[in-house]
Write a structure and sequence with these properties.
five-stranded antiparallel sheet, alpha+beta, rod-shaped
Length: about 210
């Protein structure tokens, strides 16, 4: 009987001790754990491997990313000055760089090579160019509308040029200085004057 009573008492005490341990906060138990050193522990951060394309400062604060190596490809995003992205390759001529750009189809985009520099400098592999995008709408011209703005000038016939007749310049001969017989006119006048004086003297003498 005493043994049974002692066993019940021991079990009751063990149960109370267990409840007490479970009621103790975890923060109190953590104090018993050995303290970690207070010195700064360097953290290891993973960086993308391979060359990086860094946007260089220029006239623009941001540059466009396109779906292919050309201005006629669709714009899919932008990069800011100083931003760096992994470089994957280049176009056959080297004018465009293929970079990693999550969020677009395929996770890659193209950037103009003059806007970025490769760090560390290395030769990038040549990447196959994607197909050229086809325009969804083909621009057509309405011939009826275009005909309204076309002005047709009727040809005009110029008059036929007729040269004028040759100019006939008359020539005048000097008349009056030479008598018809070839005697100078002055000599004839002097002769007439002399005859007039002669006949005048005769008339004067006869009248006396």
């Amino acid at each position: 009987m005493n043994r049974q009573k002692a066993f019940v008492t021991f079990s009751l005490l063990l149960f109370i001790l267990l409840l007490f341990l479970l009621s103790i906060p975890q923060s109190a138990l953590a104090n018993d754990v050995a303290q970690l050193p207070t010195v700064a522990i360097p953290t290891v951060t993973s960086t993308p491997s391979g060359p990086m394309a860094i946007v260089v400062p220029g006239s623009e604060t941001q540059i466009n990313l396109r779906s292919g190596p050309g201005m006629f490809y669709d714009k899919v995003g932008v990069l800011l000055v100083g931003q760096k992205v992994p470089a994957k390759g280049k176009s056959p001529g080297g004018a465009w760089i293929l970079v990693e750009y999550p969020g677009v189809q395929g996770g890659q985009a193209w950037v103009f090579a003059n806007y970025v520099r490769i760090d560390p400098p290395r030769e990038l592999p040549v990447v196959e160019i994607p197909p050229t995008p086809t325009p969804q709408v083909t621009n057509t011209i309405d011939p009826t509308l275009a005909a309204k703005f076309i002005v047709t000038v009727a040809p005009t016939r110029l008059p036929t040029y007729t040269p004028p007749p040759p100019l006939n310049v008359p020539t005048f001969q000097s008349q009056g200085s030479i008598a018809p017989a070839g005697i100078p006119m002055g000599l004839i006048i002097l002769g007439c004057a002399a005859l007039g004086v002669f006949f005048g003297l005769i008339s004067f003498v006869r009248s006396r």
